[in-house]
Amino acid sequence: MTAWFLAALLACGSSTPEPASDAPAASAPAEAAPPAAAKKKRKGKRKAKGKQTTEETASDAITQDNWKSHPEIKKIRERVNQINELENHGELWHAMGYSFAKGCGDKGITKVEMVTAFLDDSSGGQTEASRFVTVESQGDIGRETTAYYAESGSPLFAASVYTHASAESVMVSRVYYKEGKVLFTPDVEQTSENSGPKDDAVLASLVQPAVADAQSAFFALRNECMALE
């Protein structure tokens, strides 16, 4: 499911779940035109086809209606895309992955992966960002969780794709971070024609608070699962 998941993850406003439809949300209804003297003082507005529409700014609150087009969310997407784009650049992408045929006992974990991506920084050097993937499977239910960590070591973005094979349903959860704290959690999105049981896990609870914690958890889980093979 990893290849599909990452392809979907790239749909979040560029070309990386944010699966399926992460095109910008429709603009808010046009407002009545302000008096001519006030027009120059209004910020965050632009004219389109003769009508005045609202354009979100970084200072605007992020809501379930505007999050797909909000500047703060788009900035995170861009960074996630920059990380994913390094996957085919050998020396800039170091991946360590393990698969478990027996599902790690009753945990149902079939794969874990840790990636270090080397990004250029403003001084001409390189800095490290990270990506962690955990794939779970229990009967006809599966979940693939991907968490990204910024160069600072704090969480950047996480997404979880929850599938229910017999119900032919796919549910996607997302959480965005700013300076290590949850910035926004969109509603769970159904990306399949059929709906089924929703994932009852709280995505943020699956994300480690810092990359060092994520690395420790990765190796601990790897060792535990390998011992059960």
Short description, anyone?
With 229 residues, the protein is an alpha+beta fold.
Multimerization status: single chain
Supply the helix-strand structural class: alpha+beta
Low-confidence stretches: 1-16, 18-45, 47-53
**β-strand amount:** 25-35%
Described by strand count, sense and barrel closure, the largest sheet is:
8 strands, antiparallel
**Helix and strand element order:** HEEHEEEEEEEEH
How far the N terminus sits from the C terminus, by CA atoms, comes to: 21 Å
Rg over C-alpha atoms, rounded to the nearest angstrom? 20 Å
Helicity level: 10-25%
> What gross morphology would you assign?
globular
State the helix count: 3
Overall mean pLDDT stands at 82
Number of strands: 10
General description of the model:
With 229 residues, the protein is of the alpha+beta class. It has 3 helices and 10 strands. 17% of the residues lie in helices and 33% in strands. It has helices at 2-9, 71-84, 211-227, and strands spanning 45-48, 51-54, 93-99, 109-120, 126-138, 141-149, 155-164, 169-178, 181-184, 189-190. Residues 1-16, 18-45 and 47-53 have low confidence and may be disordered.
Indicate the topology.
Elements: H1 2-9, E1 45-48, E2 51-54, H2 71-84, E3 93-99, E4 109-120, E5 126-138, E6 141-149, E7 155-164, E8 169-178, E9 181-184, E10 189-190, H3 211-227
Antiparallel strand pairs: 1-2, 3-4, 4-5, 5-6, 6-7, 7-8, 8-9, 8-10
Provide tags for this entry.
alpha+beta, globular, disordered N terminus
